TrEMBL record:
Cleaved signal peptide residues: 1-20
Domain Ig-like: start-end pairs: 117-205, 210-292, 300-389, 392-472
Protein name in the entry: Ig-like domain-containing protein
Keywords on record: Disulfide bond, Glycoprotein, Immunoglobulin domain, Signal
Pfam families given in the database record: Ig_2, Ig_3
Keyword Glycoprotein: yes
Coiled coil (residue ranges): none
Keyword Cell division: no
């Protein structure tokens, strides 16, 4: 037996039935009865399409068709026929006729053999491989040697199925209006009943885009002198050509990166990027990215201007103006640490918050004012103190309302006033007895009884205000002298002095 593959065909016992067998060119086949006879038949004849292949009688082979010489073998005991080195023309119907004993009727069995040439030399070609998305169509053709090839198509590893856009015609695949996802790689599998072979890959180059152009930048705001880098990206194949524009006007700068080194305030604006694909002949413009180059805020200062000056509560108006260096400045006002808000009809702000105007200033308006100046890249603060002169108000006398004859009189006067006011003391409305915030007398007499008046005067507001305290001196001089004789005084020189002597 040679090196060819060997197969067995079992012939059905029913006359007229057929078991089809498929073999490849060069292979061997064996035709065998399913239930061979218990004893060698008297006569055996094998036919192919009606032509005798070989014969046997009484257990011996008596003849082989010369065209099968060396290729056909017959076992006269089992009726088995072996054919070697099959060729395409071996395809057809095979018939076995036997006579078991002399005079017996002839019996017949049939089967069919199909011989195929193996698939080989599978090639795949495209009518074009450089395509433009949505504009181009492509036809791929698969060729193969061998018997009755059929074709199966693959895009990457997925089998290709037909659709409105994908047309399959066995050995050809047509893709209409290609998209970027149709690039492959494509392969075709050629096969028949006995073999298959896969083609090499074909990959399409599909130009697409630019779908979009996107400008990115780290921040919107920068300080003058900073180094700023903008980047433009676009989904495109081949890579898009990129050119920059500022506020809609094309710049000379090209490429995916734009550097502002250093950034100047004049470079502020909306930066956009044009993307162009030379294969698709398509353009795309990005949305603008805003860049604002600012001068840092510095040297904030508050200027206070009042009329009349100095400021007097209820009579003066004042404006506080906040000045600072820098660009795109916003201002926020605070008073005594709290946000300053407008007050209907009295406290108003200019449109840019630069100036706060206060009409008919009140004492409550006095205090420390701060102006916080800022822009998106910096912040600073200036301060100023607003002095509002007012008063005197709420004049009060603190002291005794009654003393014993000869005792000390000690009174003090206070008032709310800016600046501090001066005080004058009078007794019973006519007699001036002193100045200053305090009145003191060592030894009281009956003449010290009466109404004490403290008059407060503000030198700026030119306003006066006063209040009274009625004081009475009680007791008599005799009792006072006896009191003094019993009292000693320890003075600063550590000497005991008789109070009576001092009196």
């Amino acid at each position: 037996m040679d090196s060819h593959a060997f197969f067995t065909v079992w012939i059905l016992t029913a006359i007229g039935s057929c078991l089809c067998q498929d073999r490849a060119v060069g292979e061997d086949v064996e035709f065998r009865l399913i239930n061979p006879p218990p004893a060698p038949p008297f006569i055996i004849n094998w036919y192919f399409e009606g032509s005798l292949i070989c014969s046997a009688s009484a257990g011996s082979v008596i003849g082989v068709n010369p065209s099968y010489e060396g290729r056909a073998s017959l076992d006269p005991n089992t009726t088995t026929l072996e054919l070697r080195s099959l060729a395409l023309n071996d395809t057809g119907e095979y018939t076995l006729r036997v006579t078991m004993i002399v005079g017996d009727a002839e019996k017949e069995w049939k089967t069919t053999l199909r011989v195929f040439e193996r698939i080989s030399s599978v090639t795949l070609e495209a009518n074009q491989t450089e395509l433009v998305e949505f504009n181009s169509s492509v036809t791929l053709t698969c060729s193969a040697s061998g018997s009755s090839p059929s074709f199966q198509w693959f895009n990457n590893s997925a089998e290709v199925t037909g659709s409105d856009r994908v047309l399959l015609d066995n050995r050809t695949l047509t893709v209409l209006n290609v998209t970027r996802y149709d690039n492959g790689p494509y392969r075709c599998n050629a096969s028949n009943i006995v073999s298959f072979e896969m083609s090499s890959d074909v990959t399409l180059t599909i130009a697409y885009g630019p779908d979009s152009a996107i400008v990115t930048v780290k921040s919107e705001y920068y300080s003058s002198g900073d180094n700023v880098t903008l980047n433009c990206s676009s989904e495109s194949s081949p890579a898009a050509q990129l050119q920059w524009a500022l506020n809609g006007t094309l710049l000379d700068e090209k490429g995916p990166e734009l550097r502002l080194d250093p950034a100047l305030t004049s470079k502020s604006g909306g930066y956009s990027c044009w993307a162009y694909n030379s294969k698709t002949q398509r353009y795309k413009l990005s949305s603008p990215a805003s860049i604002t180059v600012l001068e840092r805020v510095s040297d904030p200062a508050i200027t206070i201007a009042g009329s009349p000056d100095p400021l007097i509560a209820g009579k003066s108006s004042v404006s506080l103006t906040c000045e600072a260096k820098g660009s795109n400045i916003t201002r926020k006002w605070m008073k005594n640490g709290e946000t300053l808000s407008p007050e209907s009809g009295r406290i108003t702000f200019s449109d840019d918050n630069r100036t706060v105007s206060i009409s008919s200033v009140q004492k409550e308006d006095r205090g420390e004012y701060k102006c916080q100046v800022s822009n998106p890249i910096s912040i600073a603060e200036g301060s100023g103190t607003l002095i509002v002169n007012y008063g005197p108000e709420k004049v009060k006398i603190k002291g005794q309302e009654a003393v014993e004859f000869g005792q000390q009189i000690h009174l003090s006067c206070s008032a709310e006033s800016v600046p501090d006011c001066t005080y004058t003391w009078t007794l019973n409305g006519t007699y001036k007895i002193g100045t200053g915030a305090s009145f003191f007398k060592e030894n009281s007499t009956y003449e010290d009884s009466g109404i004490y008046t403290c008059t407060a005067w503000n030198s700026i507001t030119k306003e006066t205000n006063k209040t009274d305290l009625e004081l009475s001196v009680k007791g008599n001089a005799c009792s006072y002298n006896r009191y003094l004789s019993s009292v000693t005084h320890y003075d600063s020189n550590f000497q005991f002095l008789d109070r009576a002597v001092l009196a």
